[in-house]
Amino acid sequence: MRTLGIGAAVAAALLVGAAGAGAAEPTPWTPDGPMDGGNSMGMPFPVRVVPRGDKVRGLPMAARQIAPRYEWQGRTWTVDDYMKAYNVSGVLVLKDGQVVLERYAQGRNPTDRWASQSVAKSVTSLLAGAAIQDGKMKLTDPVERFLPELKGSAYEGVTVRQILTMSSGVKWNEAYDGGATSDLAGYYRAVMAGKDPIADFMKTLPRANAPGSTFHYNTGETHLAGMLVSRAVGMPLAEYLSEKIWKPYGMERDAAWNVDRQGREFAGCCLLATLADFARIGQFALDGGVAGGKRIVPPDWIAESTRAQIPNGRPAPAGYGYFWWIGPEAYEASGIFGQSILVYPKDRLVIVINSQWPKPDEKSLFDAQSAFHRAVRAAAVQGGR
Fold this sequence. Notes:
The protein is of the alpha+beta class and 385 residues long. The chain is built from eleven helices and 15 strands. It has helices at residues 8-13, 79-85, 119-133, 160-164, 183-192, 197-200, 219-233, 237-249, 275-286, 301-305, 363-382; strands spanning 47-50, 70-72, 75-77, 88-95, 98-104, 113-115, 255-258, 271-274, 290-291, 294-295, 319-320, 325-326, 331-335, 339-344, 349-355. Helix 3 (119-133) runs parallel beside helix 7 and helix 3 (119-133) crosses helix 8 (237-249). The chain is globular, with a radius of gyration of 19 Å.
């Protein structure tokens, strides 16, 4: 099974070609290979495995299942209607830690992994919290403490916190349809050319705003965050994820994370996991960041990272946390092409969706997803339809 990648226009701009293994000791990717979720970039980047532990955290079925029906765009929709219309491969909903809805489509099985897209950013946020809990770094640390190659660049003096809130002030063009003019495309072209995308690309970007003053979405910067964590803890990001969350929280299946030619995980995307394990990520956050009876992140980390830290253009009280999108009553890990882990803390509710939208981030697609979210929440809270 293959998932859609970052988009045809950007993929074309990335000079598609096979990436070497480098120092990653990765598993080569093939469409029908061991990492069945497919390649999250639409290209054959290798992966590093995220091993699971010996015990699996069960997700028991609730006594009452939900089957939401809702009105949207002048018609009545069911779960199957939404999944078919918006190329959804899986929906899983947890209420009080129990499954109230689980549905698959497009030939997907429960054990099939799926590409996270930018949902991985929120996972990186959890790992940043773990590194802080382990005493390996602080929010006030300047990035050059861990990435000395950024000295003399627009990133010098930018703090870990400013990276996590996407407020570095560094100029960046995230456009998925920008082709050769997109900084995102430029970043991946550097990767494909075998260059160090940090030293050879990110270091060249100019400053546009004062650090900490302005939110600006930047996937390249989230890859920096992954490097910060990896260097702080002294191990690859996938290994740290396995040690801190995947094993102790009881994920059901090994995950995988795409790596670049230097063997570094693309921390802003490209985590491959099952639908149920994405749900467990949401439940882990909802549980306050405790796994196997041990605190993984600081006591206030989940609350802090999932509240608005900086305005992001959405009406208050919405905003952006530490790599989480913040709404009035929920927080979300969100990825292009329709990937979502939405958490309603007061309702003890986790809604997970994996999709293959025809476009990466069109407003009408997000609007339809939001309508579905609302219907699922209403049904889950009311305990029925």
